[in-house]
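lol forgot to send this yesterday, sorry. struct tokens for the thing we talked abt
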């Protein structure tokens, strides 16, 4: 009978790590697993700008009637301003509010499948754990381009460009806009220029996932490479998230951006995306987008928000420098200096799964087997302990 044949799904390695950490009764446990920003007390508070916008929304909102299939159009436009800035491609850009960037990734994947059923999506090796499942569930093929250099722990540009030069008109190349998840190794501006040249020459479709705008070098600096590309290619897609930089995780707030050769074409593609959304969730949830819209359109609220994102960025960058410094001081070698060069919340440490397991089991430091740590899971008081145990298990 239907349903009788289903085995349980495999546990998600990152979510099950959080569960294991919560169940651990060692007082000194440290959770560097799940990708959530935390302050120096280990909390993920609601941002002040969000609190203020929520108070205002509570006063002002007079109806909960459906918003409409593309979601909040004012949010869509404000988010496109944040992403694309004054770039010319904005004139051809259309946005659709989605349930998180996850929703945007999936809806855009569905549209790619409609347009090119045999298309291949190229992902960076490594990439965000959900990229391949989303693309594959949408029926798309997945291939990987070389990205993370396990020696330098930075981007292997040459190998990456060599792989991308195999992608053609039936291919999509998915790029992380900034703050690469999981590695922390970002494309340089020169890399973006080289990728742009290849996109023009080979005719592949760039698809940019931007989940951490503001967490790397700043709100505009983080999208400088993306904007360079955006002004020079015929078409591109973007999935953008408000989970981290607005702290709206559970409100499921994101945006899909479609840029075709003309505004007319973008609108045609948008109508197909809405058709996919209609048969999936019909309309996105409103609350998070209403708050983001209010913040981005009010000068004082926007400044409060920008200051808060700056503070989060500085905290993570400070932790990077302190951890790299402690590792250098204790080991007498610069092996882990790359931690200070990485951007955003994550770094892949280049340790083995066995070493990651020892850190968990023997020292209560929770990180995934891939060796990815969430720097924001750290408190300043943890730095020495983490550095000491990391050197112990890696015999450095
Ligand atoms: C690279 C990347 N893309 C997309 C997402 C999904 O974000 P959202 O919560 O907006 O669905 C994440 C979340 O961790 C991410 O790291």
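and heres what i got for the seq, position by position
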């Amino acid at each position: 009978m239907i349903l009788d044949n289903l085995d349980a799904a495999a546990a998600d390695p990152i979510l099950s790590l959080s569960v294991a950490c919560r169940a651990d009764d060692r007082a000194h446990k440290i959770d560097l697993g799940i990708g959530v920003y935390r302050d120096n007390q280990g909390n993920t508070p609601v941002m002040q700008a969000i609190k203020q916008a929520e108070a205002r929304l509570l006063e002002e909102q007079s109806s909960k009637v459906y918003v409409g299939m593309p979601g909040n159009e004012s949010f869509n436009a404000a988010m496109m301003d944040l992403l694309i800035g004054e770039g010319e491609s904005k004139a051809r850009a259309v946005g659709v509010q989605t349930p998180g960037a996850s929703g945007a990734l999936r809806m855009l994947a569905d549209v790619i499948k409609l347009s090119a059923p045999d298309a291949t999506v190229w992902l960076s090796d490594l990439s965000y754990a959900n990229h391949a499942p989303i693309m594959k569930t949408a029926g798309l093929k997945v291939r990987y381009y070389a990205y993370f250099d396990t020696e330098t722990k930075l981007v292997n540009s040459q190998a990456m460009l060599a792989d991308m030069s195999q992608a053609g008109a039936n291919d999509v190349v998915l790029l992380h806009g900034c703050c690469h998840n999981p590695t922390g190794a970002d494309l340089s501006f020169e890399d973006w220029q080289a990728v742009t040249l290849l996109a023009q020459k080979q005719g592949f479709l760039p698809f940019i996932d931007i989940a951490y705008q503001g967490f790397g070098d700043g709100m505009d600096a983080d999208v400088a490479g993306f904007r360079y590309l955006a002004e020079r290619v015929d078409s591109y897609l973007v999935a953008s998230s408000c989970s981290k930089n607005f702290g709206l995780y559970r409100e499921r707030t994101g945006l899909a951006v479609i840029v075709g050769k003309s505004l007319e074409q973008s609108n045609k593609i948008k109508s197909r995306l809405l058709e996919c959304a209609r048969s999936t969730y019909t309309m996105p949830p409103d609350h998070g987008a209403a708050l983001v819209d209010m913040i981005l359109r009010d000068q004082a609220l926007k400044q409060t928000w920008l200051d808060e994102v700056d503070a989060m960025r500085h905290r993570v960058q400070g932790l990077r420098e302190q951890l790299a410094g402690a590792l250098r001081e204790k080991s007498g070698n610069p092996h882990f200096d790359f931690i200070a060069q990485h951007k955003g919340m994550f770094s892949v440490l280049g340790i083995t799964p066995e070493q990651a397991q020892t850190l968990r089991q023997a020292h209560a430091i929770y990180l995934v087997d891939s060796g990815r740590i969430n720097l924001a899971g750290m408190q300043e008081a943890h730095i020495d302990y983490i550095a000491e145990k990391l050197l112990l298990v890696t015999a450095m």
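The chain has two domains: 13-45+302-394, 66-297. anyway ping me if u want another try
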